[in-house]
Design goal:
The structure is a single chain. This protein is mainly beta. The chain is about 5% helix and about 45% strand. The strands form two sheets. Strands 2-10-9-4-5-6 form a six-stranded mixed sheet. A four-stranded antiparallel sheet has the order 1-3-8-7, with no helix packed on it. The longest helix has 5 residues, at about 95-100. The relative contact order is 0.32.
């Protein structure tokens, strides 16, 4: 399964971006979809997750600012990021637990937030 994240870019602090992820397989086959990010010099961290039933969870650092959603009809998962901060800078990846367990990561998208 190929997981391609897109929608990143350069934005000023306080701005917004919406990331998209469209796996090559049908996302209906994935119970949980996740977004991770990796800042320069830091380990990859879980940002948000959403189950097939739409139950979402977030890292404390992004609660109230980020929203994960999934559109099964469009086979796409989104991450709406508002009130961005410089510490949100990093490469963002979408992935599934099964892919992560195999150590497989697709191409991420760069998000840069300037102060």
């Amino acid at each position: 399964v190929q997981l391609q994240a897109s929608g990143g870019g350069l934005v000023q602090a306080g701005g917004s971006l919406r990331l998209s992820c469209a796996p090559s397989g049908n996302i209906l086959g994935f119970n949980t979809m996740t977004w991770y990010r990796q800042a320069p010099g830091k380990q990859r961290e879980l940002v948000a997750a959403i189950t097939s039933g739409g139950s979402a969870s977030y890292a404390n650092s992004v609660k109230g600012r980020f929203t994960i959603s999934r559109d099964n009809a469009r086979n796409t998962v989104y991450l709406q990021m508002n009130s961005l901060k410089p510490e949100d800078t990093g490469v963002y990846y979408c992935n599934t637990p099964s892919q992560i367990a195999l150590g497989l990561w697709g191409q991420g998208t760069q998000v840069t937030v300037s102060s």
